[in-house]
């Protein structure tokens, strides 16, 4: 009949009737001696709903069939004594309060009863006032334990249902996130395509002059447009393959990846500087690393930085990239928010940029860290395992 924190146990509140109204706490008095048993039942009857049992086996059957707040249990009984009955009782109902009564008030007996799961120990015959106060207090304690157990059981059930819901919808959740990231990242190269297309239209109008220099610039613009379009294509392919969650890594020069982002996404802006060795080789995905650099450089510039430095170095078998800006910086609270994801200070921002960078860095076996102070700019460090150039 019992369910809840213990398998097979039902957590209900015996202080409530079927209509939900409060009723007197239920007490079971267990004693093989008729006089003491009926005397205690009579004493408690004015304040509690009392039942009695002559033997431990009878008491255990009642506890299986009904709910009680308190069991007043004599420790000395034939067939099954109070200590053994207490052990069996706890298997049936771990929440009911048990008050042990004995005429043999030795310390060892008291300790044995308390270790066995008794809630209180009283000498027999108990003082009437003390007994009523003890039963009232233990009834309240039992009711509180049942309520807490029910809350815990409900929380476990809710957590299980939530986990099942998440697992059932995990593919959709993951693809939805991937879709948001895709829209976030496609915005930048598409802007580049539009910008360079406008320039190409303007230059094309001048081609009537058959100027060779203009023809050269048109070729340069067309190359940049082609790279930006190719970048969009690979972002789309990554989204299409998102459900497989497979990242194909190849040997590449990460310095050249950063240089390409500077040229294609940021129009070779002088505010972006690349420093360090001419080459630094790792195992990676070119277009995913382009997303990392694109987001980090774009964040710095949009936050007001006029200079962003990507400093590469090779140390201890790692390629380390420090991306440092001279922007306004952030305090500790804001750093925690942006690292958690979903926070942005931009009017139309998604707050996904740094989360994307951290996720993609991790998928390359790398480590992402960020340091910032108000008025001192921000530094993002990317650490990747170095690879030997073939």
Terminal CA distance: 71 Å
CATH superfamily of the largest domain: Response regulator
Helix and strand content put the structural class at alpha/beta
Beta-strand percentage range: 15-25%
Biggest sheet character: 5 strands, parallel
Structure described in brief:
With 390 residues, the chain is of the alpha/beta class. The chain is 51% helix and 18% strand. α8 runs antiparallel to α10 (353-363).
How does this model look, in words?
The chain has 390 residues and is α/β, with parallel strands linked by helices. The protein folds into 2 domains: 2-162, Rossmann fold (3-Layer(aba) Sandwich); 247-385, Histidine kinase-like ATPase, C-terminal domain (Heat Shock Protein 90). Helix content is 51%, strand content 18%. The protein has helices at residues 34-44, 56-65, 82-92, 107-115, 128-206, 212-240, 254-264, 286-302, 332-340, 353-363; strands spanning 2-3, 9-10, 26-30, 49-53, 70-74, 97-102, 120-123, 250-253, 272-275, 281-284, 308-315, 318-325, 367-372, 378-385. The strands form 4 sheets. It has a 5-stranded parallel β-sheet, sandwiched between helices. Strands 9-11-12-14-13 form a 5-stranded mixed β-sheet. Strand 13 and strand 14 (378-385) form a beta hairpin. The longest helix is centred in the middle third of the chain and has 79 residues, at 128-206. It is rod-shaped. It starts with a strand and ends in a 5-residue tail after the last strand. The model is unreliable at 1-10 (pLDDT under 50).
């Amino acid at each position: 009949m019992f369910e809840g924190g213990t398998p097979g146990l039902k957590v209900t509140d015996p202080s409530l009737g079927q209509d939900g109204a409060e009723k007197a706490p239920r007490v079971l008095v267990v004693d093989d001696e008729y006089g003491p048993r009926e005397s205690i039942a009579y004493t408690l009857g004015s304040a509690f709903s009392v039942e009695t049992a002559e033997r431990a086996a009878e008491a255990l059957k009642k506890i299986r069939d009904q709910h009680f707040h308190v069991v007043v249990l004599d420790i000395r009984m034939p067939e099954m004594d109070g200590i053994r009955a207490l052990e069996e009782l706890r298997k049936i109902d771990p929440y009911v309060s048990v008050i042990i009564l004995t005429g043999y008030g030795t310390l060892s007996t008291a300790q044995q009863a308390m270790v066995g799961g008794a809630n209180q120990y009283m000498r027999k015959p108990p003082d009437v006032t003390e007994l009523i106060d003890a039963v009232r207090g233990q009834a309240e304690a039992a009711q509180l334990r049942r309520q807490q157990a029910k809350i815990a059981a409900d929380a476990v059930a809710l957590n299980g249902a939530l986990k099942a819901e998440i697992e059932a919808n995990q593919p959709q959740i993951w693809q939805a996130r991937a879709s948001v990231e895709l829209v976030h990242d496609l915005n930048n190269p598409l802007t580049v395509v539009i910008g360079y297309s406008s320039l190409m239209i303007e230059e094309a109008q001048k081609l009537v002059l058959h100027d060779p220099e203009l023809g050269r610039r048109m070729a340069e613009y067309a190359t940049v447009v082609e790279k930006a379009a190719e970048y969009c294509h690979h972002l789309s392919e990554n989204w299409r393959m998102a459900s497989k969650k497979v990242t194909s890594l190849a040997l590449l020069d990460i310095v050249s990846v950063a240089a390409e982002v500077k040229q294609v996404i940021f129009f070779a802006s002088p505010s972006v500087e690349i420093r360090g060795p001419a080459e630094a080789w790792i195992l990676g995905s070119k277009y995913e690393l382009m997303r990392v650099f694109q987001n980090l450089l774009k964040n710095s510039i949009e936050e007001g930085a006029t200079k962003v430095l990507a400093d590469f170095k090779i140390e201890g078998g790692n390629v380390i990239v420090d991306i440092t800006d001279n922007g306004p910086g952030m305090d500790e609270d804001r750093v925690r928010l942006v690292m958690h994801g979903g926070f942005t200070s931009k009017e139309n921002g998604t707050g996904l940029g740094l989360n994307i960078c951290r996720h993609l860095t991790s998928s390359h076996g790398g480590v992402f860290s960020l340091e910032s102070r108000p008025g001192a700019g921000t530094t993002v460090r990317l650490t990747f395992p170095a690879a030997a150039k073939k």
